Amino acid sequence: MMRIHRYVLSILLVGAAGLFMGLHTTVPTYLPVPLEDFPASLAQWRLAREETFSPELLKVLRPTDYLYRVYTTNNGDAVHLYIGYHDGTRNAGQIHSPKNCLPGGGWYEVSSRKTSLPLPDGSSIPLVEAVYKHGETTEVMLYWFEAGGVEVTNEYAFKLKEVENSIFRGRRDAAFVRIGVTTRGDSLDAAFQQARRFLGDAWQSLRWHLPS
Q1: Does residue 26 or residue 199 have the better pLDDT?
Q2: For the Methanolan biosynthesis EpsI domain, which residue ranges apply (predicted)?
Q3: Could you state, in order of their start, the residue ranges of all structural domains in the chain?
Q4: Which of 19, 22, 104, 159 has its CA 20 to 30 A from that of 72?
Q5: Coil vs helix vs strand at 189
Q6: Dmax (CA) of the chain
């Protein structure tokens, strides 16, 4: 019963948050550096290709700026990097969680867990490690949300952080970062290690390109 009460309370809080944010006006928060200037080389990783979304998908996501790239190494490792940035204005869409949008594309969640990953600069980042499947394709991913430069792993906490930032900081900017590795189902650990290694190599550039 307590769990149900918590769930209902979370829904009410998120609903109130959405109503408040719909009525509350804030100014845009601009990116320090455009995402198109994100480095093509990151340590051992090299840009293999950059993809653009269809107009139909962009109408749904409505990012202020976004980046979707594939990076590879000389030994054949490959990662998919997605960064979606929303500047907080009414023209920018809401962040979409993988838990909500991927099932609509035929993907289903095999597992997910929240963790904290140590980084080369001595800090750490809270993120979600997840496994999704689509037919015979398996993808492991690391992802997190950012609300006003603060990393968050929980969708409800993310919404509440947006409200807090709007009230106390006059900011509604948000970002979503996802690092994915396509793999066979029997090599999940190696795929996660690959994704973590890429994040370590890309971390400093991520911080330069997203608002703090």
Answers
A1: 199
A2: 9-207
A3: 2-209
A4: 104
A5: helix
A6: 54
Please report where in the chains the tokens 């015979």 appear, as a residue.
136
Q: What is the pTM of this model?
A: 0.84
Residue type, 21: M
Question: Any long-range contacts for 201-206 (C-beta under 8 Å, 24+ apart)?
Answer: 201/42, 201/43, 201/44, 201/45, 202/42, 202/45, 202/81, 203/119, 203/120, 203/121, 203/125, 204/121, 205/38, 205/39, 205/42, 206/83, 206/177
Contact 156, 10 (CB under 8 A): yes
Return the minimum-mean-pLDDT range out of 73-77, 119-123, 159-163, 205-209. Answer: 159-163
The pLDDT of residue 3 is 52
Please state the rounded mean pLDDT for residues 184-192. 87
Token pair in block for residue 152: 């968050």
